[in-house]
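Batch job 17 of 40 flagged for manual review because the log was empty.
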Amino acid sequence: MAQVRRFYFEEGSAAREIYEPLPSREEREIERKKRERAYRRAKEQRKAIAMRQNRLYTIYLCLGVLVFATFFAYYVGIQAKTADHQRKVTALRMEVSEMKADNAAESNRVYAATNLTTVRDVAINQLGMKYAGNDKIVYYSVSDNDYMSQYEDIP
């Protein structure tokens, strides 16, 4: 018994039934194989496209990680330099404060060791210095200006 396909056509007011024989088993098998091959080919193409996209995505991801790692390494380097500079500044400030303390202690020692009466005795007795007499003192009057110019030696 042959398998048939039914088609209905409308011609005028009555619909007629037209019988058309179905393709043979071999023809149907060939058609099915063609569809399967087309389906497999389309599936492989989609897979290839997905692989290319995955490769591209992986490359973008690697580049992003590389940029982030470079930025992070640079940031850590800057932080290390900043911490090193802060340690150096702290050490220098401590050194300056120690020097100021040593300078103040030395100044106090010098002022404490200096006795003005001893200085006066040495100046008068050993070096022959004398106090200025009234005839050696010269007084000048200055006008509104705060300074005075001397153009020749004073006798």
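Reviewer: the log was empty due to a logging misconfiguration, but the result itself is present. The chain has a mean pLDDT of 83. Unflagging and moving on to job 18.
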